[in-house]
Amino acid sequence: MEQAPDIVMMTEKIKQESAFIDLIKLEMGKVIIGQKHLIDNLIIALLADGHILLEGVPGLAKTLSIKTLAQIVNVSFSRIQFTPDLLPADLIGTLIYSQKKEEFTVKLGPIFANFILADEINRSPAKVQSALLEAMQERQVTIGDKTNKLPEPFLVMATQNPLEQEGTYPLPEAQIDRFMLKVLVDYPKREEERQIIRINLAQQFPKPNAVVNGEQILNARKLVKDIHLSDKIENYILDIVFATRYPESYNLEKLKALIRYGASPRASIYLALASKAKAFMEHRAFVLPDDVKSVAFEVLRHRIGLTYEAEAENISSDDIITEILNNVEVP
After folding, report:
1. Residue 295 pLDDT more than 90?
2. Claim to verify: residue 159 and residue 262 sit in the same structural domain
3. Of 85, 91, 156, 201, which sits 20 to 30 A from 292 (CA to CA)?
4. By the 8 A CB rule, do 123 and 168 touch?
5. Do residues 204 and 312 share a domain?
6. Whole-number Å distance between alpha carbons of 224 and 274
7. Please, are residues 180 and 48 in contact by the beta-carbon 8 Å criterion?
């Protein structure tokens, strides 16, 4: 791998500045048993300034994870339960007329917090979904004629229940694309579940300590962007993304009939950013092919459209990503 001239100095700096990652993991481990994959991806989203979509059955510590992370980073947290009768004003806020002052004042909604949990986002209608997604993209909300900036750092974690389809409003592809990562949350292992029982039956539920602050996170985000991404790794990322669009160019003709549409340019941007965040978590100043591979599923799975043929054959986007990673040449 080619070395940038100041890579040695940068490595030393990253080692010092990324030490807090281990503290976050340590504190998360006090409260969250197992779910290492979920915790890692939450930290990647936080470092790369992206949002995260979680899919999994109820009771897998999704809410507890982001709430715990908010306590550890010592920032404000809002949990918004999405329901069919929710209005955009319930989310972003509204104008209230004050008789005393004889004027309208702005009452800010729960979205004005650092960490937002959008619980069961597919339960509310398109208007509410688009209000949240506009806030995610623009990092600001307009109420009346006044534009209000959202606090920094700002992280949205939305959850979807994959089991129930009745009374839900699936997110359109263009809106799903705004989430940097989509993580599938699975059941804990048997021994982990034994620990979960014990921790919940103990006299006192463990409390995490605040070990970092928002300022440190904002500083870390700048450093993440400075992490070295060589031309070879850049080409590797482009090959992976382009293989979702033109599989025949990568000797993957069999995928052509299975892919309705490939990943958007956001996939390339987020693959690069998430790989850099992963390298930062590993206290490294440069990206390795393994970093790209480790984030590829989360970045790509919601950006590949499947044909009816793929669905009929029970082929998932994860199967397609596996096939691509196995065939695209690693630098």
Report:
1. yes
2. no
3. 156
4. yes
5. no
6. 9
7. yes
**Whole-angstrom Cα distance, residue 296 to residue 240?**
9
Instruction: Pick the closest to residue 279 from 298, 265, 293 (CA basis).
Output: 293
Look at the chain and report how many structural domains it folds into. Answer: 2
Torsions phi, psi of 137, nearest 5?
A: -80, -50
Of 182, 302, 181, 296, nearest to 238 (Cα)? 296
- Strand ranges (E), the chain: 52-55, 77-81, 93-98, 103-108, 115-119, 140-143, 146-149, 155-160, 181-184, 259-261, 305-306
88-130 residue pLDDT tens: 888 888 877 777 777 777 788 889 999 999 888 888 888 888 8
Q: Which of 182, 215, 248 is the last residue of a domain?
A: 215
- Whether residue 174 sits in one domain with residue 311: no
| Residue 95 belongs to domain spanning | 28-215
Residues 194, 55 share a domain: yes
Identify whether residues 143 and 287 lie together within a single domain: no
Domain boundary among 180, 215, 250: 215
Q: Poorest-confidence range of 79-83, 107-111, 173-177?
A: 173-177
The answer to whether the peptide bond before residue 153 is cis (omega within 30 degrees of 0) is: yes
198 within domain boundaries: yes
pLDDT, residue 1, reads 43
State the Cα–Cα distance between residues 192 and 195, nearest whole angstrom. Answer: 5
For 139-199, give the DSSP string.
SEEEETTEEEEPPSS-EEEEEE-SS--TT--PPPHHHHTT-SEEEE--PPPHHHHHHHHHH
Tokens linked to 234 = 């850049």
Same domain membership, residue 204 and residue 80: yes
Say what the pTM is: 0.88
Whether residue 96 is found in the same domain as residue 191: yes
What three-state secondary structure class fits 36?
helix
8 A C-beta contact, residue 275 and residue 291: yes
